[in-house]
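TL;DR need structure tokens for one chain.
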Amino acid sequence: MKATIRQGLQALLMLLAVALSFTAQAERKLLDQVVAIVDDDVVLQTELEARINTITGRLSTQGTGLPPRRLLEERVLEQLITESVQLQMADKMGMRISDNELNETLTSIAERNGMSLSAFEDQLVAEGVSYRQAREQIRQEMLTSRVQQRLVGNRVRVTEREVENYLQALESGGGSDAEYRLAYIFIELDSPADDAAVDVTREKAEKLRTAIVNGRDFREVAVAESDASNALEGGDMGWRSERQLPSLVAPVVPGLAVGQPSEVLENNSGFHMVMVMDKRGGSQKQVIQQNRVRHILIRPSEAVTDTEAEAAIRELSQQLQDGADFAVLAREFSDDPVSGSDGGNLGWVSPGQMVPAFEQAMQEAEVGEMKGPFRSQFGWHILQVEERRQKDISSDVKEAEARQAIYRRKFETELQNWLREIRDEAFIEFKGEYEQNTGEDEPGEAQEAAE
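>> reply
TL;DR here they are.
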């Protein structure tokens, strides 16, 4: 009798063990189920949930409202799909991000946010993201950025005429040094030649603006509806000086109050809105110290040891002290062929142009004084500062910022086109509950979200 009971208990325990095993396997299968196949890669449910948690944590910290869960899932899944395509392209091109590069980037992100690296880790945990997850996500963002710069950046050209027109328009509009923290919404136009499609897209954009004016959070609308690459960051464009504003919005931003959405702006790519989230005064006139300098370089080589190079430069230094002509010695002996042929002249040098050892010696030298010999990574130098001046580089900075603003606008347009191209060309198969997903909202869903 006891043996029978024992056997029954053993059988029950075995059944329980088998059931628990199947349950554990089912849980693992559920957690790691494939939600989409993307060319030679897959997107897992765990990846989707982790990214959603990251985004919702960040948006909640910002106080930004969240769109309906299903809509958020679909938008995040689309983001993961386009990332997967780009990461596979990066792998095929042999792109890699070293641990040192990644560590430097993480430290830089922490410093920009006024935190130590440990405080940054704590902030990530507070947002529901582990440090390991953050490292991997940032590594992937660095890779996709490099792919975009290589493949999209080559499509973008900025002409001198465009820069001139931009600066003239800014000047005629009374441009100032004010800076703006902007958020941005972009509603893409799929068929610019189809008047009916244009009207439908315009109506959608206008309804979204009305919803924002009536109190809906601009950043929430960006997350739910914007087609811009920064949509899931709430459309945040960061701080931009007036000279750095994209040309489409540059005329309207200065006239907006903080918290006021712009009118719907239209161009061939679609419909746009911006909101000034914050505003602050800009920088003053930018003046730097420049040095007009010349030098003689003796470079060690396979034929000349470092000791021999040092001895040669010291001999030249003695000749200069004895009254030899600097330009004559530079032409005859300098191993810098460009400056040597011009008597050692380097012209006007701005801060940061030279390697640290050379820059330090240049700054320490009095006007007319010869400094050296000293060693840099290129070899042994003697330099002479012939003149020193204060240079207003405001116009140079304005031109550079104008070029960057035009480049960013063109790059963003090309990026949207390119992302659509690679998305259309990729093999994508949705799985499970997403199997019917086409990457588009269900009929009426976008309108309901806007109301």
